[in-house]
Amino acid sequence: MNSGRSMLPVLPPLNNANPSTIDYKTVSENPDKVVDLVDQLFDQIMELAQVNTVVYAIQTLLAPLYNTKKITLWHYIESHNTFFSQTYKIHEAVEGSILQEAFTEKKVVYIPYEKRNQKKYTQNENISCEQDNVLVIPMVPRTGTVGAVIEIAIDHHKVFNTDHYQIAQLLMSKFKSYYSYLIDEDPLDNEAIQLLVSTSLPETYKRISGLLSKFYAARVVEFWMLRTRDNSILKVFDESENPTNVEQDMAGIAGYALEHFVVINERYMKNNKNYNSQVDGNGDYSMLCVPCQLDDARRWAIVLRGRVSPPHYSRCDEHTLLSLTPFACKSISAAILPPSELPQFDDFETRFQALLEIAMTLSGQLDIDNLIPMIMSRACSLLNAQRCSLFLIDRATNMLTTRFANGVDKGLQIPITQGIVGQTATTGAILNIPDAYSDPRFNKQIDIETGFRTNTILSVPIVNNRGEIIGVTEMINKKSGLLFDDEDIRMMTAFNVFCGISLDNAKLYQASLDLSKQLTIFTEMSSAIKEDSSDQTLKSIIMNAKNTLGASGAVLYIYNSDDKSFQVKDQVGKGATYGTTFAEKAVQDREDKIFQPDDIDNLLFPAQSNNNSKLGKDDSYDSFDSISSRPITPTKPGKTGSARVSMLLSTATTAQLPDVNIRETIVCIPLVNNENTILGVIQLTCPWTVIPEDVKMLKSYAVFASLIIERQNLKGIAEFGQDEVEMNTWMTKEEKHSMTEIPSKLIIPEDVLKNNVFTIKFNSLEWDGIGHFKVLFAIFHYFDFFQIYKITNEKFFRFLYAIRSMYKKVPYHNWRHAVDVTQFVTYQIMISGLEKVFTKFELFSLVVAAICHDANHDGFTNIYNVKAETPLGILYKNQSVMETHHCSIAIQIMSHEETNLLAALNQDEYIEIWSLIIQYILATDMARHFEILKRFNDIYDGGDFTMQRHDHRVMLLYMILKCGDISNVSRPFELADRWCDVLCEEFFRQGDLEQAQGMAYTSDLNDRSHLDKAKSQIGFYTYVTLPMFQAAGKAVPALDVNMRQVLSNLSVWKRKHAEELELQKAALAAASDKPKTNQTQQQQQTNNTNQPATNNNNNNNNNKSENNSTSGGGTKLGQGPAPKDNNKDNKENKDEDTIGEELLLDENGDPIVDVKMSISTLLRESSEHIKCYPGDDKKK
């Protein structure tokens, strides 16, 4: 045990805290107030520790409480497993000490003197003797490892009572929460660290790497060197007296960083293309590699591998390691070379250790009022300077301010453009002034007032981790009388890196304290908030968010996901200058967004931004998010982050930093509820750069805003129901009862209806939300269903809301698909003129069936439901399982008066329309596809088809709906392809489940890993869809245009399939390394073999089409038997691909439809046989 002092040190007088203000008698007189006393006591400790040391605070404030001066704070030194007392400058081994039990058990321990005599603890008589009773209080931070203990000793004639013990336990709990604010991780006393300087490479490596490992929480620290004369690479090992040579091709990531002089920061080493498992080790570890050029002969790099917590290295780690690397590498280099070559070795390592000490000290200080004097004191010590002043930039006033400067009683404030420090602040230049009085920028007034003589000045910028200049340190006069040199500049530049980070941390800490107070207020308010004060609370939230960020303005938007609109709920300060542009981007990306000035320019003025200098990602330090390597040498000084970091390695005294541009930054935080639905956006405008840490604080406000908005929504739902709330958003009270006009907010402009909604180009994917309702309102209004069947806007809205809620969120058979099918059914009726052929009653039943035809579809086929024996499969076995279920859902929805679209019908009409709706929905079962198609073709080709027969009319309506159900194939190819992907995903979903249940695939299309998309579509088009559209086209010639679009899409799929086959053949040929001539012959043979089959297939299809259109006397609607057209035969005999490619479009891009029907003739012939229903023109 080290010898200690004979008495307690003389302590300085108490400044801000006074132990006399604590009523210690309260403990014994009022035991119930122990908790309040401890709170008061701990507050005093925290206050006093800020102006003195934590040792002094604890000893001073606990002494009167326990009536003893024998109070000692012991720091635990993990590397030596000992305790260290800064007061007595002594060590105490943990093993066998009186402190061991409290340390091991992590609890307050009372040791009476009798126990001490029995156990024979090791002890230091200067602190306590064998006749003392001892109370030991461990200080355990949240990490769970004891960092320090407090030893309190009293004479054995006195005793610790229960109050003393309870206070000790409460203090232990307090220390757990606030330990990191009171005590540094390691004592800064050099006697405790005891890092002895040695020129031995293993010892130097072990010492330096140990410091780096601890500071960066790295599992492994390595030093690498590249000799420029022969490009040889060496690696320093702790067990080797000399560096070990490494072959260049075996040097891994570090070798690449040395050769190309780049910083490499990898989240996972194995992701780097230069990763070598033999030299780089565990590829799942993170890695940070920073090179530096010490001289022309050698290039060094420090490699940190496997950060412990957090698991990845940050940009801040890069920044600080860049500043430390030259000093650490010089220490290692000095240990390798003879001392005669580098006599300043001791100074290198001493400065390196000093920098790390300062880094640890500054990182533990979060009170900016204490941090600034500490920075100034450490700076003077580091450079052996007489004085130091620290100026901070005030962006709001464009002034440089300091609350304290050596030799000046009060703080200074000067314009940012004036003086030596002003030039450093605005340009980033490091200014080394050898004679201050000869420099015209120097202000002599302070010297005159203080009587101090300024000789030399070193002015260095402080840069934060965002690369912004936030202040300047001005060093004045070296004590030695010498000038500041290049080593001083390097040291000060590195020192200021830590200053910048610490100042930012202190600001964030203060902001977090403010935020904590505000959130406490919010929490209290949220529990007692009144219904009529929610809007006021929202205003309070955005006001506090604005103040926390120091923003110039804040706006709260409410977002409507149905029509993707924004409404300003409230705003504070500067309003939304740029509209909703940035809020829209945040909603689109569904994430918090920080828009820097360049981002704002790009969004607002894209054309102008594209003409500006186009920098790649490697040109901007701040733009690197996923790129792992970055050049150190700057390409555009003053613009790139490389210019900032290269300054750390440069010996120049005029290194430049980017210009200071005071421009706006915009932050957008989406407000999201528990279901991940976006409710709104908080947008703030700031006059300076915002960092991710700021956003984290703002998200707290966003959470509260989301809760209040959600509560307001739920309140409305509770009072009126969700459908009522949504309906009130889209129509007025008067509009609800209308049967003649669509609500104004649901009207689609006429040009959009004409050029999009009622065309083949309609894309249901782009009309999500209220858009689908708008489309269906337009369709019902077009057919005049509202007025004919007395359907109010309110009833139709409620019906749509109810039926939409029954559609499940499956990939394909969902509400989008229902709207898509309904639109295509309407489109077919419109382009063919069938609205003049079918009655309104028939059309009404068809459109309602289309809306309901897949309600509550689970995304699985009928055969799966039967084989898997799902409840539906069991219930509807031997039936159309899903289609029967869809019918039951439709019946369920329209059994309620508020959603019954059929309420105006009489009993006979009611029975008839349900019969039709059910028939239509059941007809969509693909298992009946070929049966229905064959029956239709047999009737039509047999010449028996007539619109005078009810069953024939229904059969044609089947065809219209079934074409709508598979209409994706007849959309423009881009749309058809997108729908194909969606359908495939639903098939794959079923296939994955079949595999998980041990079932065989019910269809080859369900196999995710072996699907040939193009080939499957060729089969589907050829055997399923094309015959259906051909049949519809021969009965209704105007619908032939859809068949031609199917042929056009089929030709694309065939071309894609052929290209895939060519690629496969080429790959096989390359793998077998066959001569080119053999490949050519094989290709020709393949083409010759395939060609006849293709021609035969085309001829068969064409012959079938021709026979279907002329044989049997089948009557086309309103046209009768068609005479043979030789020109048409010639066109049909062309290759299918040619027919598809010759599809003609009008000026709007729609297929040209040739309507060749005599509707009046058909109506005249069949009018006597058509039943009349509401909405039908009886005069016809």
UniProtKB/TrEMBL annotation:
Q: Which InterPro entries match?
A: GAF (IPR003018), GAF-like_dom_sf (IPR029016), HD/PDEase_dom (IPR003607), PDEase (IPR023088), PDEase_catalytic_dom (IPR002073), PDEase_catalytic_dom_sf (IPR036971)
Residue intervals of the PDEase domain: 735-1060
Compositional bias per record (Low complexity), positions renumbered to this chain: 1070-1110
The record lists Zn(2+) 2 as bound by D854
Keyword Endoplasmic reticulum listed: no
Binding positions for Zn(2+) 1 per the UniProt entry? H817, H853, D854, D965
Residue positions annotated to bind AMP are: H813, N814, W815, R816, H817, D854, D965, Q1017
Query: Any keyword Metal-binding?
Result: yes
Q: Where is the composition biased (Acidic residues)?
A: 1138-1147
The record's listing under PROSITE patterns reads:
PDEASE_I_2
Spell out the residue ranges making up region: Disordered.
614-641, 1070-1147
Q: Where is the composition biased (Basic and acidic residues)?
A: 1125-1137
Please list the GO terms describing molecular function. Answer: 3',5'-cyclic-AMP phosphodiesterase activity; 3',5'-cyclic-GMP phosphodiesterase activity; metal ion binding
Quote the catalytic residue positions.
H813 (proton donor)
Gene Ontology BP annotations = negative regulation of cAMP/PKA signal transduction; signal transduction
This protein's UniProt keywords: cGMP, Hydrolase, Metal-binding
The record, for PANTHER family, names: CYCLIC NUCLEOTIDE PHOSPHODIESTERASE
What is this protein called in UniProt? 3'5'-cyclic nucleotide phosphodiesterase family protein
Q: What is the lineage of its organism?
A: Eukaryota, Metamonada, Parabasalia, Trichomonadida, Trichomonadidae
